[in-house]
Structures are given as C-alpha cells and as structure tokens.
Design brief:
- The protein has 379 residues and is of the alpha/beta class.
- It has helices at 20-32, 77-85, 100-110, 129-132, 136-149, 162-172, 216-221, 241-251, 271-275, 292-299, 329-341, 344-363, 368-377, and strands at 3-8, 36-43, 61-63, 68-72, 91-94, 118-121, 155-159, 177-180, 201-207, 229-235, 258-262, 280-283, 304-307, 321-324.
- The strands form 2 sheets. An 8-stranded mixed beta sheet has the order 3-4-2-1-5-6-7-8, sandwiched between helices.
- Strand 10, helix 8 and strand 11 (258-262) form a beta-alpha-beta unit.
- Helix 2 crosses helix 3 (100-110) and helix 10 crosses helix 12 (344-363).
Length: 379
C-alpha cells in the first residue's frame, strides 16, 4: 500500500499567476505520484483573485492523473484541513513557511491530533534577509514561536539551494534537520532563435510579480543615468498596487532615452517566446531560492542580469549573465551601459552562452532520484 503524502500549497493548476512555486509543486507531483498516494490541498482561486476556477468543484476531492486534489473555498478551508488531518497522513509537505492557511494552521492543528506525521517545510525563499525585511515584525515573532513549539524529531526543512540551507540554520540555530536538493527543473522545449541586438541599443525585459521582493523599483532606479537607447518592458501580475505607484513615479523621472512600458500579465506558455525578442532579462530580486523565470530566460537564450540574492552564482563565469550586489546600484548602471554599447556580433556570444548554460547545467541534470530518495527516507 502506498504511503500518503499531503501537499499544502496556496495555489495550483489551473492557476497561472503564482509562478515558480506552482511549477515546483507540479514537478514534485510528477516525480512522486507513482510512489505515494498524493493529495493536494490548495485554494479554489488564483493569486490576487477571488473568483473560483470555473473548471473545479470546491471543497470536494477531485481525481486527477495519478493524484487527488481539494480546492478549498475561503469559508471552508479550516474545516477541510481539520477533516483531512484526521486521516493521519504519513507525510505533510508545506510549500511555504509563512502561509497562514497552508502552513501555519496545519502545523497548529497537528498539535491536537494523535498522529505525528513527518512534516517537511519548503520555505521557497521566504527566509532570506531580503524577504524577511518585508513585514519584519510579524515574521520575527512567528519564527520565534515556531522554534519554541515545534519538535525537531518530526519537523524538517527541504531547501532548494545551499544558501537557503544556511538561512534556515542561522534562523533556527540548526535545531531542525535541513536537506538541500536543487529544484526539479521543468524541461523547456523551445525553438532557439537568436534575435539581433543593435549597437547603442538595449531591449530589457522584467518578468515577475510587481512586488517589493522582486525589486522592480531598483531596476528602474538603475536606469536613471544610463546612456544610449534603452527599453525596459515589464510583464507580471500587479500584486502590490501601492508599490507599483512608487515605480510609476520613478519612471516619469527617467531621461527621454529610456523608455519603460508595462504590458500586464503574461501567460506561462508565452514567456520563453517573448523573452527571445529581448537582449537582457533583469531581475534585481531581494531573495530567490530558485527562480523558474531565470531558467526560462536562459532557455530563451536571453542573458540575465541578477542580484546576488539568488543561487545562480556561476552565471558570470559561464558568460550567461551577471550577478551583482544590491549594495552598489552603480554597478548595475555601468553594466547596462557596457552592454548597450556592444555591437550585434559582440553580444551574440552572451545569447549563445545563455542557451548553452541551460542545455548543459539545467536541462541535462535531473534531481528526480534525489527527491524520491528523500521522500521515501522520511517515511
């Protein structure tokens, strides 16, 4: 008989707006569904939305291809979780550390059950310094309570990078077992075409949620003193409207040689094809434990300009992009100026290198066996 695995996550298919975490869960389910009896517990609507998915039945178990899923309505989320925990699952996987409904509440309710399943928490970049600096007081107090009340013999962490593993150890003084396995990569099948960059011009793309963590305002500020014809096109869900308004104020202060346009949300299936039309993907994120959108940029042959708050530390040495410290915005501006001046032949090497990096460092490596071994060893 298969062991039972309950996966709690804020969003899942047919949602499209949650980005990387959604795709990460999908990859885990595909890797484990033949080994475990998997139940996904999630919301019945997409990120920044309240309308239920038209194709699902809320608050009922729905059978999918090799697993089952419960789409919880807001009013029945708590009762659904209570009912499910009475089934005494073997493993509980929480795809967030701070999610109130899909991490905090399940852990709290477990204290009142007789069973003690293995609890695996994937913090998804929530414990990095940049992420913790957003709403810091609330996060600080919850982290203290978590450390005080959770037992190290049944709670553990699964991190997607060595830096994230160190963040967990630093925050909780190595109290909890922590395992580091690179995220399961989602293979991207795409026709690779080299777009032509023009000398003294640079087409930049930003694809991510409009939120403080993704740091769009920093990207805009870095363009204040750049030269040449620079274009920044922004795609992504407007998660924080007040933050976007602050970005708009920065945009109007830019020089005429810099053009910025917001195009709204982009469907996941269109991301790579869209990125192929640009010279540079720019993401000065405050923290990223993996960054599926970075993988998509590399698959598109679009060199990446990143902050040093991601696990992609060897990008520069492979000529696939640049990782710079957020403490020095001038470095970002200077890098953009240098890239803008390059002629098509000079810049082409970076586009080819980005695609080669994806082929050799990402697509050819599979961590599926490591994930299977990890989850089986937890039972």
């Amino acid at each position: 008989m298969k062991k039972s695995l309950y996966i709690f996550c804020d969003y899942y298919w047919p949602g499209t707006k949650a980005g990387g975490p959604l795709r990460s869960i999908s990859a885990i389910v595909n890797a484990l569904k033949n080994i475990f009896s998997i139940t996904i517990i999630t919301r019945n609507h997409d990120l920044c939305d309240t309308t239920p998915y038209p194709s699902v039945i809320s608050d009922q178990v729905m059978q999918q291809d090799g697993y089952q899923i419960i789409y919880c309505s807001r009013e029945n989320t708590l009762s659904n979780i209570k009912k499910l925990l009475k089934n005494s699952p073997d493993i509980i996987y929480l795809n967030s550390f701070f999610s109130p409904y899909f991490s905090v509440i399940p852990q709290y309710l477990l204290r009142f059950t007789h069973s003690k399943p293995r609890v695996i928490i994937s913090p998804r970049g929530e414990l990095g310094f940049g992420a913790l600096s957003i709403k810091p007081i609330r996060k600080k107090w919850y982290s203290r309570l978590f450390k005080l009340f959770n037992a190290k013999d049944y709670v553990e962490f699964l991190t997607a990078s060595d830096s994230e593993r160190k963040e967990v150890a630093q925050l909780f003084s190595q109290k909890f077992k922590t395992t580091y396995i690179d995220n399961l990569s989602v293979k991207q099948s795409t026709h690779f075409e080299l777009s032509q960059k023009n000398k003294n011009q640079l087409k930049i793309i930003f694809v991510s949620r409009i939120s403080r963590k993704k740091n769009l305002s920093y990207a805009i500020q870095s363009l204040q003193n750049v030269q040449g014809d620079v274009q920044l096109d922004i795609y992504g869900l407007m998660e924080d409207k007040l933050y976007w308004e602050s970005c708009e104020r920065l945009i109007v202060s830019l020089s005429p040689n810099v053009r910025v346009q917001y195009y709204g949300e982009i469907h996941p299936d269109q991301v790579i094809a869209t990125m192929q039309q640009y010279d540079l993907f720019f993401l000065p994120t405050k923290n990223e434990n993996y960054g599926y959108v970075i993988v998509e940029a590399l698959a598109a042959g679009c060199p990446v300009l990143l902050s040093d708050q991601t696990p992609w530390k060897n990008i520069a040495e492979n000529n696939a992009g640049w990782t710079l410290p957020l403490s020095d915005i001038t470095l970002f501006s200077e890098t953009i100026n240098t890239l803008t001046r390059l002629c098509p032949n000079e810049y082409q090497q970076y586009k080819i290198a980005a695609r080669n990096y994806y082929n050799t460092q990402i697509q050819s490596h599979s961590n599926e066996e490591k994930y299977v071994s990890f989850f089986e060893s937890s039972t």
